[in-house]
From TrEMBL:
Residues of the Histidine kinase domain: 25-202
Enzyme Commission number: 2.7.13.3
Gene3D superfamilies: 3.40.50.2300, Histidine kinase-like ATPase, C-terminal domain
Descriptive protein name: histidine kinase
Keywords associated with the record: Phosphoprotein
Matching InterPro entries: CheY-like_superfamily, HATPase_C_sf, HATPase_dom, His_kinase_dom, Sig_transdc_His_kin-like_C, Sig_transdc_resp-reg_receiver
Residues that bear 4-aspartylphosphate: D276
Length: 347
């Protein structure tokens, strides 16, 4: 399938991809309720996490609800599992949306809690610096008795069939597991505000200063030669088209063995391998190992419809390896590609 940039078909395809990506995000987060995966704690940019969820939240909430973001500059990183932080944000926002059946405004705020302010909070300890995530709604609010019980498992004041009572108790469990706590302020008829406090991470966020913003003169520009290996022809076509429209020179292959043949015919080293993990003949992991022996500086972006923990044993993603779950938003895919290419350019 060859689609021109101005093609109406391309526009429809992109809309389908966006819708599928939204479904994937929601499914991935809902699956997190029922599994016991080990958490992966690392420095997390809370502002970035909220911004990345904005489109998904827009689809989850009714059209008569306005979403406002007030994210403070230079918010400290928090030591957290990104999937669980996304779950906290989603549950709080869905709960806020349910409190506004006639519509209203959902406001998400972030801010640092430093110095004397943190010391005034007994939960923070003597010297901890905190980061506060606030979710505010203009909904029905709640009385004091309800406020005291909202974090109890299976407690809900929603209509029968409208809620499980697990959303806020899950939030509470995650926040406490992260060494944080929650304050709730609410008045009947005047809305509610959930203030969630997380300890500041002592480590910086990896890649916090993008190399593109401090690229030295004479360094290799972003762009380059990319080999896309994917056994699904529709996905392969879309991925290749996105890369070409963003200035990359692209070749494509249907599996690992075909990729070796394509590279031999191309006759040039590549900068980036974008490959599916599970394919007939030769999988993505085996292909990457083989090519990196020939090209030690080769960057690899693995992609799969399987989550990382459900990939076959021979295809497990190792720490430091780049992975993206299909289907994915175009913006997220391009961000991953640019990050890998800039990393190579900065060497």
């Amino acid at each position: 399938m060859n689609l021109n940039q101005d093609s109406s078909s391309l526009h429809h395809v992109e809309e389908i991809v966006k819708a599928a990506a939204a479904g994937t995000e929601l499914t991935r987060q809902l699956l997190a309720f029922g599994r016991k995966d080990p958490i992966q704690m690392r420095p997390v940019d809370l502002n970035r996490a909220v911004r990345n969820m904005q489109k998904m939240l827009r689809r989850l909430l009714r059209e008569n609800i306005t979403i406002e973001l007030f994210l403070a500059d230079a918010v400290h990183p928090i030591h957290a599992d990104i999937n669980q932080i996304e779950q906290v944000v989603m549950n709080l926002c869905v709960n806020a949306g349910d409190a506004m059946p006639e519509g209203g405004t959902l406001t998400i705020l972030t801010r640092n809690i430093d110095g004397e302010t943190a010391m005034d909070m007994p939960e923070a300890g003597v010297s901890k610096q905190m980061v506060c995530l606030s979710v505010r709604d203009t909904g029905c609010g709640m009385d004091e008795e309800t406020r005291k019980r909202i974090f109890e498992p299976f407690f809900t004041n929603k209509q029968k069939g409208k809620g499980t009572g697990l959303g806020l108790s899950t939030v509470y469990g995650i926040v406490r597991q992260h060494g944080g706590w929650i304050d709730v302020h609410s008045t009947p008829g005047a809305g509610s505000q959930f203030d969630v406090y997380f300890p500041k991470s002592e480590l910086p966020i990896e890649g916090e200063m993008p190399r593109a913003e401090k690229q030295p003169q004479g360094s290799k520009p972003v762009g380059g030669k990319v080999l896309v290996v994917e056994d699904n022809p529709s996905i392969r076509s879309i991925v290749c088209d996105v890369l070409r429209r963003n200035g990359y020179s692209v070749r494509e292959a249907s599996d690992g063995l075909n990729a070796l043949q394509v590279l031999s015919e191309w006759g040039q080293p590549i900068d980036l391998l974008v490959t599916d993990m599970v394919m007939p003949a030769m999988g993505g992991k085996s292909l990457a190992i083989k090519l990196q022996r020939q090209m030690p500086k080769l960057k690899v972006l693995f992609m799969s419809g399987y989550t990382e923990e459900r990939l076959p044993a021979m295809g497990k993603i190792q720490p430091g390896e780049a992975f993206i779950l299909k289907p994915f938003p175009v913006e997220r895919f391009l961000s991953a590609v640019r990050g890998l290419m800039q990393e190579e350019a900065g060497r």
